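SAMPLE LOG
Freezer: B-3
Tube label: C17
Construct: single chain, 194 aa
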Amino acid sequence: MPLLDSPETAGGALRAVAAAVDQLLDALHRLAAKYGPACCVLLCTNLDTLAPAAPSDAHWRTVLVQLGMSSAQRARALDCYAVYLQRGQLASATRERASQELRRLQEHTSSHTAYWAAAAGLRRLLTAEHAAYAALGCTLRSILSRAQLARWVVCSWPFFPSPADLMAALQQESAAAAAPPPGAAAWGLLPRRE
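STRUCTURE (predicted):
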């Protein structure tokens, strides 16, 4: 690669690649926020084969290891993910109420106006959920360095670089690190409860 032979051009080339990756992620997350079905397709497709597929949790743990996040980055990411999960719980409760309302409307003869109102509520809810997903992606992009963003995209292949799945892997890893080792209670390593 002649472009990367000299230190002067290597730095510029790497900055150009990092900027291109940042631009790609920005476009993908805006697409995910604006078009819910596109987001669902992106998250459930092997982009290499274009077949429906979902990556395993092990895939995202491997991607997480490759990023080499600092403890400060991890803490910020976990804080943002906690807010995302809290919003998700509220949205889930709202979605359940909307589903119950639609079932109630189906059981009883209702006016078309009631159906349209329920459908509009569901549409607003889905739009808010996709906007929260896109916001999580933007927040993660602000936490990671450009080199980490590039690794995120490359290591996620052949799957879409999903911020929610990556943060779930980070949360699982953090919970596992905070848990006492197996057998710690048997050896008296845990504090006693009075």
